[in-house]
Amino acid sequence: MRSHSCRLFSVSRNNSNCKKGLVLGVYEKEKEDSSLYFTEAADKFDRCLSGKLRELLSISGPPLKKGKSRVFYGIHEDFPSVVVVGLGKNSPGVCNTENWDTCKENIRAAVSVGCRVLQDLEVPLVEVDPCGDPQAAAEGAILGLFEYDEFKQKKKFAVKTQLHCSSDSAAWERGVLYGEGQNLARRLMEAPANHVTPAFFADIIEQKLAPFSDKVVIHKRQKSWIEEQHMGAFLSVSKGSEEPPVFLEIHYNGNADSSQPPLVLVGKGITFDSGGISLKPSSGMDAMRADMAGAATVCSSVVTAAALKFPINIIGLAPLCENMPSGKANKPGDVVKAKNGKTIQVDNTDAEGRLILADALCYAHGFNPKAIVNAATLTGAMDVALGSAATGVFTNSDWLWNQLHRASIVTGDRVWRMPLFQHYTKQVTDSQLADLSNIGKYSRSGGACTAAAFLREFVTAPHWAHLDIAGVMSNKDETPYLRKGMSGRPTRTLVEFAAGLSTEA
Fold it and tell me: What is the model's pTM?
């Protein structure tokens, strides 16, 4: 690798008016009597300072633990502020117990901490130690600095990040795009529902895909088209709102061979969920502006795949509408007909996500897909089952599960396989008035599983997966490189999954 040691002194002299900061990594001591173990970039920096950084770390406090930081001022003329962050133990790799790459997760968490420290110090330009994995470092920086403040007069201080002391700029840029993709989903999920209506959501995605118009085709299907498609389940949910529904259809043609079957991603797009006539409790209802998280993550994944020029064909489908109570809204006990002709008894109008997905899944089969993956904040039961630790995956395909699981280990945004037993199917097919009920026979018992069983009734494809992302919708303090708020998960896992499929194409 080409040496960049001279860059420590040369770059900023040409930018003397630019206040810069630096984030460097250090590993935990393996033994009490062992010396500090720097990353390659930190070691070069320390040698330029004749060992001063190592000396300052040793006398300024106890050894840095994983995710902790220490700031030094005035030790280098090019970097008035230097933050050293703890990376934990060196190269622990994939942990089978945790189901992720611990090294990558430690880098994301540590880099995010360092960047936030410099953001609080109002340092506009931050150089980031690649810490042996430039992509993970970039993801930590981009995800860690994000905060939704669009409607606040006082904005978070804007920070630009760039790679320090490494020639692997391609991996860094890849990480930047992965992070920005997840941040796009976070931005859509956080925005208030009176701004992000179905039409506005579709417009935003169209704008984000505009730079890739040579390989992207977008259809914003209106109510008349939805009616022509006989999507009665989708229409039944939308009719309670004054906002008209939109069926967003995105085609990314990354593979010149049009005969290659596409990956179809389907996202639940309820831009606000009041529960309908089965009204939700008022406490926490504001968070239901993010009930379109499935659509947000799916569409953001397509945007990211296009930016990264994946050699794969992807179709994104997002049925977008509000679920509101009104004189036109679904009533408990109503019967509606889905696109495939099956009738559904709507026993609970708050189980609306599966209704709009039913029609979208039927439509997805028309593309002869390689695989269908849908994402939805579908059930509170999934939050009860797994919390925010992982996305629940229900799938009829071992191959598809292995692809998703492998991707989640790389991203640290984990998935966990859930059962699709016939036991649950019987609970949704036992309906008094119709072919199916939109809630399980025993209501609360196995709620995530009966919801998945319901969706399966609209799937004939051999490779289908349903991702219930209700538990990972928001972040309190569980993921250290995400601030409190909507998480945008599992966008990076969907992108990494698509990347894996593109290498097989």
Answer: 0.95
